[in-house]
Specification:
The complex is a heterodimer of chains A (about 425) and B (about 525).
Chain A: E1 2-6, H1 10-20, E2 33-37, E3 48-57, H2 60-66, E4 88-92, E5 96-97, E6 103-104, E7 109-112, H3 118-121, H4 128-131, E8 167-170, E9 174-176, H5 183-187, H6 189-201, E10 209-213, H7 217-231, E11 240-244, H8 248-256, E12 261-263, H9 268-276, E13 295-300, H10 305-314, E14 315-323, H11 335-339, E15 343-346, E16 352-353, E17 362-363, H12 364-375, E18 381-385, H13 390-398, E19 407-411
Parallel strand pairs in A: 10-11, 10-13, 11-12, 13-14, 14-15, 18-19
Antiparallel strand pairs in A: 1-2, 3-4, 3-8, 3-19, 4-7, 5-6, 7-9, 16-17
Chain B: E1 7-10, E2 18-23, E3 26-29, E4 36-39, H1 50-59, H2 68-71, E5 77-83, H3 97-111, E6 116-122, H4 131-146, E7 152-154, E8 163-168, E9 174-178, H5 179-182, E10 186-190, H6 202-207, H7 211-214, H8 220-224, H9 236-250, E11 255-262, H10 283-298, H11 301-309, E12 317-323, H12 325-340, E13 341-344, E14 348-356, H13 369-380, E15 384-385, E16 390-399, H14 412-421, H15 428-434, H16 436-440, H17 443-451, H18 459-466, H19 468-473, E17 476-480, H20 484-489, E18 493-495, H21 498-509, E19 515-518, E20 525-528
Parallel strand pairs in B: 2-14, 4-19, 5-6, 5-10, 6-7, 10-11, 13-20, 14-16, 14-19, 15-20, 16-17, 17-18
Antiparallel strand pairs in B: 1-4, 2-3, 8-9, 11-12
The chains are: A alpha/beta (about 425), B alpha/beta (about 525).
């Protein structure tokens, strides 16, 4: 069975890093990712089940790994060789009990919640984060009865979605897919959950000006989630949701998903200035100077040093910049952050979302299924590839915006490749 | 030789190509046979003794006003207001007519022993003039006598301490104007009437007003009902200003209006070919055209802009009248028509126009896409009396590069208007409802208007409302040679050549349309029968 395997190979890693500097995804052919024939991993313990992937997305963090530009911070919480792919919809190979307690029968469709927290690792008692439902913040991702790996797709023992052989998952990672949700919708549930978590973690208040930097998968899904969660009363409704989107198709999607205004990224600061009625200062009129006021919340869905700097320039004093896109090493002028007491907050993964006074706590994934169904987020899946064309797939994902795409996924279903 | 009137040429096989302005350059276009080209009358003879004529006008006012010296007395408060940098176009060679008039008024004031004199540039919501521009308009003598003492001011429509609300008209229109001017014993207004829209009660009621007041007539509804705003009796814009002007007079504000008209000798000798009829071009004209158009096309737009904005027009004074506002303006309007009026029989399916590098709102600045639209659909389209030159549902074809370039210091809110409003709507009524107030009250725009050289935040809306009548009237607007993205942003259709534009227009007006070209320069007004 075909599997894409990522091995620890410093020369290949270095080669990929050099070539991908010409464009994300372009170094995959000479990098550490290889197509191999391999069986599914063994089940590590009771409560684990094999999942046969149907679709598995290529995420920004996957691209960073393949490009050799992911942070060394992750070195101790991954194990090699691993099979990438943490955005997964598939079918269970045997009966199981899902994370929400529902019974699963062999062949049922599931979405994977990929974080390998205490429950999956067999750690008792669970860490404080897992006990609180915040599995994304699990402090035991290098321990337990499987090797280190913050998520499925980065752990040598679990396999990953980029495989037709299957992966193994703990029952606590499985969420059944409603019948009316397509596979394309379902494969986006994991990034939707990231977006939901980011939105609910940000202090958006009624009437706020909110800016979203970047309109790739995460930016679009933050846009969709904010509107949907506000309609559900789970977060406040901003007065303006301004999205910076570079490409035409992204701009159309952002509007469709609920942005009140969509602009090219370089025009976003001017829109934020106008909506926040800031007095610009520190630069000539027309330039991107730090604003006197600014957006109440900025979701940085890019994660580059430039985008973080832009977010810091656009946020109001005591406002929040939520880092949703995975950042790496960055050189930044933090004087405005210090002077304006800006809160720079990470937004990673998912877990349990506090409900506030009107709602019970609920898993991020269950909210993500709502958003995916309401917005048919499968519309973001622009192309799927068979594993055999992994170089094309990764190159497409690396140039998604430029090539008019959003989400690229591997399709391990039988039949003609798409 | 007597002055030749304006006329309408019918293009035939022997007609040479016709000049079109094309932003910071010009081109010759071969118009289809049977097209009409409307040419302005030749320049009215200049007054031989401008200072003498000005003095005579001040001593022999029209309407119910005493001669100016009789209105001046020691101890009085005198305010002299004058039109700003938006007039005339291009800026006239020194001495500017404002300088000549104001020097004469000041001489009379000095003779009468008037000490308390303040000059006010009647900016309305336009940008503040620079020192160089003020010196050019007023002359060094006036500037140096007033500016260092803080007695040369520029109207600030956002200064609550220097505005006074005089009341509401019977239509509920607020009249709020410059306090210094309104509380003076005499307000002398010095006008330049380049086009028939200028002057009259509009001078004070608009030039010295606040946004609170201006919004009553600078809005889509008023502009749609101004047919045209170049024809005062048919202009709702003017009706509103007239109501306000009468309220100003009834409030006890003594206005002594001085209006001037200029001839249409618009460009100096080295650009004289621009305003000649093409078949009368001399060899020198042809050579100059070829050399100039080639040179302007080869240099970067910034440089060609700089060259063209340095032009000083030989405009000459053709009339000056002073006294009571309405009596003065009736004479002025007649004089403007004498210079600019051309009889045209019937409307046309397609109206073509070449748009120049300059309009009232980009003197020493950049003609951004909103101003392109305003110049074509606001000004040129409205240069008519009776009926628009183009029939209802017809097509306007404009030629201009329409680059998405903006002067960030002069037009900051225009950039946001282009990026954030036109991307959502090009409907004047919709943008009025959705966006106007937030732009008009934006503190950053207000700050830049008051302390920098920026047009007021609401100004791009007004420019778009200027187009409202045309937008409702025509079936399509095509821009030849314009930046396609910018043209589409305006809601218009881009075309790479006049032939392409005519092909696009045929969808609207059929395969054998009538076509009329408004030759510019110089400015003309079509009396469409």
């Amino acid at each position: 069975m075909s599997t894409l395997l990522f091995e620890r190979s410093l020369p290949r890693f270095a080669a990929a890093r050099v070539v991908s500097s010409l464009g994300s995804g372009r170094g995959v052919g000479i990098g550490p990712l290889r197509l191999v024939e391999r069986d599914a991993p063994r089940l590590p313990a009771a409560g684990w089940v094999r999942v046969d992937p149907t679709l598995s997305g290529i995420c920004g963090s996957d691209l960073a790994t393949l490009d050799g530009r992911s942070s060394r911070y992750f070195e101790d919480i991954v194990s090699f060789p691993f099979v990438p792919g943490h955005e997964v919809v598939g079918t269970v190979a045997s009966d199981a009990v899902a994370a929400d307690g529902r019974a699963l029968t062999a062949g049922d469709r599931v979405v994977l919640q990929p974080v390998l927290g205490c429950a999956a690792r067999g750690i008792e008692p669970p860490c404080a984060a897992c006990q609180g439902g915040h599995v994304g913040n699990c402090g035991r991702t290098a321990f337990g009865h499987i090797r280190p790996g913050l998520q499925t797709g980065f752990c040598a023992d679990t396999g990953g979605g980029w495989s037709s052989a299957g992966l193994v998952a703990h029952e606590s990672q499985l969420y059944p897919v409603p019948e009316d949700l397509s596979d394309e919708d379902a494969v986006t549930v994991e990034p939707v959950a990231c977006a939901v978590h980011a939105v609910l973690g940000a202090p958006v208040a009624g009437g706020d000006v909110v800016a979203v930097l970047g309109a790739g998968t995460l930016g679009l899904l933050v846009t969709a989630s904010l509107g949907h969660l506000a309609a559900l009363g789970r977060c406040a409704t901003p007065s303006a949701l301004l999205v910076g989107a570079r490409y035409g198709h992204q701009q159309k999607l952002a509007r469709r998903l609920g942005a009140t205004e969509v602009l090219p990224p370089d025009q976003l600061p001017r829109a934020v200035r106008r909506h926040s009625r800031s007095l610009s200062f520190g630069g000539d009129p027309g330039t991107t100077a730090t604003l006197s006021d600014g957006a109440d919340v900025v979701f940085d869905c890019v994660g580059s040093p430039e985008s973080i700097a832009q977010a810091l320039a656009m946020v109001r004093p005591r406002g929040t910049v939520a880092l949703v896109g995975m950042p790496g090493r960055a050189t930044l002028d933090l004087a405005p952050l210090w002077h304006r007491e800006v809160r720079l907050a990470g937004a990673y993964a998912y877990g349990s979302e506090a409900g506030g006074s009107a709602h019970d706590a609920v898993s991020t994934f269950s909210l993500a299924f709502d958003v995916a169904a309401a917005h048919r987020t499968g519309q973001l899946v622009s192309a799927t590839y068979p594993l055999s064309r992994f170089e094309d797939a990764v190159a497409h994902a690396g140039a998604a915006g430029r090539r008019g795409a959003v989400k690229i996924a591997f399709d391990t279903r039988k039949g003609p490749s798409r | 030789m007597s002055r030749r009137p304006g006329f309408v040429l019918e293009v035939d096989k022997s007609t040479p190509s016709t000049l079109f302005w094309n932003g910071e350059g010009f081109v010759l276009e071969a118009l289809p046979e049977g097209s009409r080209v409307v040419y302005a009358p030749e320049p009215v003879k200049a007054l031989e003794d401008p200072y003498g004529a000005i003095r005579h006008a001040l001593l022999h006012p029209v309407g119910d006003r005493d001669p100016l010296p009789a209105l001046l007395r020691p101890g009085m408060k005198l305010t002299i207001c004058f039109d700003d940098v938006s007039l005339p176009l291009p800026p006239m060679a020194s001495p500017d007519i404002r300088q000549m008039v104001i020097e004469t008024v000041l001489d009379m004031a000095a003779e009468a022993g008037v000490d308390d004199v303040v000059l006010v540039a009647a900016l309305a919501l336009h940008r503040r003039m620079t020192e160089e521009e003020l010196r050019h308009a007023l002359g060094d003598r006036v500037y140096d006598a007033f500016a260092p003492h803080g007695l040369l001011t520029q109207h600030d429509a956002e200064d609550p301490d220097n505005l006074v609300h005089l009341g509401q008209t019977d239509q509920g229109e607020d009249v709020e104007i410059n306090k210094r001017a309104a509380t003076s014993d005499l307000l002398v207004y010095v006008n330049i009437n380049l086009v028939s829209m200028d002057g009259g009660h509009k001078s004070v009621a608009t030039g010295l007003a606040s946004y609170r007041s201006l919004r009553h007539h600078h809005n889509p509804s008023t502009m749609r009902h101004s047919r045209s705003f170049m024809d005062q009796p048919s202009s709702e814009l003017h009706s509103s200003n007239w109501r306000m002007g009468r309220l100003i007079a009834d409030s006890g504000v003594e206005v002594f209006q001085i209006e001037t008209t200029l001839n249409n000798d618009t460009f100096p000798t080295n650009f004289a070919f621009l305003q000649k009829r093409e078949w009368e071009w001399s060899l020198r004209d042809r050579t100059t055209y070829a050399a100039t158009s080639t040179a302007l096309a080869k240099v970067p737009p910034r440089l060609s802009r700089q060259i063209l904005h340095s032009i000083r027009s030989p405009h000459a004074l053709t009339s000056v009248q002073a006294g009571e506002v309405e009596a003065v303006h009736a004479l002025t309007t007649a004089n403007v028509w004498t210079q600019q009026g051309v009889d045209v029989e019937g409307q046309t399916d397609i109206l073509t126009m070449g748009l120049p590098y300059i309009c009232p709102y980009n003197v020493n600045s950049i003609m951004n896409p909103i101003l392109v639209a305003c110049l074509g659909l606001g000004y040129f389209f409205n240069m008519y009396r009776g009926r628009p030159l183009v029939r209802e549902g017809g097509v306007v074809i404009m030629r201009h590069p329409t680059r998405p370039e903006f002067h960030p210091g002069h037009h900051p809110s225009y950039i946001d208007f282009y990026e954030q409003v036109l991307t959502q709507t090009v409907d004047p009524t919709e943008m009025h409802k959705q966006f106007e107030e937030s732009f008009a009250t934006d503190p950053w725009y207000v700050h830049l208007y008051r302390t920098g050289h920026a047009y007021h935040g609401v100004h791009p809306f007004y420019m778009w409302y200027w187009c409202a009548h045309a937008l409702a009237h025509v079936g399509r607007v095509i821009v030849v040679g314009g930046n396609p993205a910018a043209v589409r942003r305006l809601g218009f259709s881009p075309a790479s050549s006049l032939d392409d534009a005519l092909e696009i227009a045929s969808d609207i007006v059929g395969p054998s349309p009538t076509l009329t070209h408004v030759h510019n320069p110089p400015i003309l007004m079509a009396d469409v029968h």
